[in-house]
Amino acid sequence: MDMNFVTNLLLASVRMATPLIFISLAELYSQRAGLTNIGLEGLATIGSLAGFMVSLLTGSPMLGVLAGLLAGILVNMIFAYATISLCAEQIVYGMAINIFAPALAAFVYRVYFGSGSELVQVKLMNTLSSSVGITPSNFFARLLLDQTFMVYLAYALVVFTAIYFNRTKSGLNYKAVGEYPKAAATLGIDVIRTKYLASIICGALAGMGGAYLTTCYTTTYVDGNVAGRGFIALAAVIFGRWSAGGVLLACLFFGFCDALQIRLQVMSFGLPYQFFQMIPYVATVLVLALIGMKKAGPKSCGKPYRREER
Amino acid sequence: MEEILRMEHITKRFGEFYANRDINLSVLKGEVHTLLGENGAGKSTLMNILFGLYQPSGGQIFLHGKPVAIDSPATAVKLGIGMVHQHFMLVEAMTVFENIILGDRNTKGIFIDRNARRKEILELSERYNLDVELDKPITEIAVGAQQRVEILKALYRGAELLVLDEPTAALTDIEVEGLFRIMKKLVGEGKSIIFISHKMREVMQISDRITILRAGETVRTVERGETTGEELAGLMIGRELAPSHYAKVTKPGAAVVSLHDVDYQKKSKHNGLNGVTLEVGRGEILGIAGVDGNGQSQLAQLVTGVIAPEGGSVDMKGSRVATFSPNGFILENVSHIPEDRNKMGLIGNMSVMENILLKETGDPRFSDAGGWHLKRKAMRTYAEQMQQKYDIRCTSVAQESRNLSGGNQQKVILARELENHPDLLVAVHPTRGLDIGATRFVHDTMISARDAGCGVLLISADFDEILEMSDRIIVIFEGKIMGEYPGSNPPIDQISLAMAGK
Known about the structure:
The complex is a heterodimer. The N and C termini of chain A lie far apart (about 65 Å). Helix content of chain A is about 75%, strand content about 0%. The model of chain A has no long low-confidence stretch (mean pLDDT about 90). Chain A is mostly helical. Chain B has a 6-stranded mixed β-sheet, with helices on both faces. Chain B has a 6-stranded mixed β-sheet with strand order 16-19-20-13-21-22, sandwiched between helices. In chain B, strand 21 and strand 22 (about 480-485) form a beta hairpin. Chain B is globular and about 70 Å long.
């Protein structure tokens, strides 16, 4: 194993972690307001298709990401209305999003592109280094410069989230909604508004995470391209103990597993490639089993908030 | 004196049910005004309307003589109303400091200015002697301290009128004294307090005026000096209630259960037992007195088979207990009124009928085919008989038990635990949170079980209850037995000292 292998592996880990960071932060914002949204997979899928189509039509991956964000919000409003206004079961509606959104994405794709086997390709987002026209040579320069705008945005969001929840008044109020909405309401915090806001943020970030896959990662859209990242992100939030920094570390770990499995597949060792494909998922299962549920997340997660409950 | 609040003709309906009907209330500046009433009399509903949590179906609220519409707690806070809820509105995952500044709108800026806020809070806490540790998480401070945080929270938001909803329910006597000192200080500084309670002794001690509610309506407002506890109790329940005197049993029957030198986690001061020896005879009530958290929970779990002793032995009806399991004890005919009826006594999402019959499903009266087929009709008939006999007030026996009031929930448990004539009844805080009427019912039922030959182990933190009910009294402190006293003419001073560990 040469140095090049390790360097490439680490660089790939960062790339693979990026969509997970977006999707995990989406879940973090949702759960911090007491909404357990397991529909991330669906939200990311619809974001991925919207990103793909808009970037194909306009030639701009940036507009693609924006489209992914809007599509995510739109679909998540179904979840929001059902669980916040109608007090429906969060797990059921999250599951509904997971069934509905990928089906919708597949349908739109077929209608637009027909069912031919030819894969349509789009241009990917430029990295910082290529847009300014330099070719970084050493590892750290590549790590810092050889990345797309989305990667920088992901890390900026992690920092922002950490500051928001720990240092600001608004962040403290937001967390109170997820912990004890009734107490928050007695202090004049608008619980319903906070929950809708959380759903908008969740839809936007999950949609962007999906759009990353078709604007920065692969040049095509195929059904199932989110490949369980929505569920890995759920695990990352638990593994990351509901904090922005923890979620980042968890995502980097899962990203590393993903990058590793691709490289091992190529090296093959005579084993079927599916064996290596399991790695990120096995890692998820192991992590959840090992860290357990000792410190549960925000207390009101999963419970509907009714205003005049007796 | 200036009138700070007037509520006129307040009505609140939940469906067909009137929680409040045409209620009038007037509160003066600088007074402690008590709202007195049994559970379900509409006190909490009225206060939730005042605080903007519920919208009234009719009526008008005036503050300082001006009509106001309180559409949300935020508005109430702005108008200078602060409320300390019966179930504290504290976020457990946060610190005391964070809880106090939560939802703060008076300060500018996006970020939390910790130093400035701390200074403000500490000034308030000194002025009103509200001693709190700002950096501790809520989970690590005692109930009394949590309550001080709640009061501080209200004052920090500029409350002029404070509502304290059953603030003494969860406090020890010493903590209650502390709370009353704080209340006096607050009214001395010109704040007004609405105090909600149904404990007569406390009401007579702290109130300036008292408004009595019954079944959602105002009965009367009286000055404290013009009334007596007996009169108030009569107004509150709508009939005269003769003071209760149960005859004491001095010669109990053979031992039902006896503990010899029992240890359980004996190093733990609050959750252990250390060399406990005691005996409960047939037809007597043994009262275990003590401040909460001195091993009472463990004692109860031990004599119901939930936990096994780590040292010593337990005899049940003369034979040594070898294995400890709840089912084994149930088969020995031990009944249990657990300390937390919602967590241990009832399955909230199941109906009254199902809760009454939980222990009887194997009985041929209610099932055949070895329990694989339930006789719903027989179960329902039986449950309805129990509903009559124990005066359980519910819409039907099919109603979910979590929707019942505390008193009626306790009656469901009594029906299940006492109907099969137990040999031993373990009752832990059996009347905690119940109103006078329900308390009397529970006590009467326990006394008749005793007279039918049942041995009763009564564990209670309510000293009055221990004195009223017990034929013998044992004091427990830090898992040890401090002494045994007779139930008739008990030496109250000695017992009080023993409860404090002296």
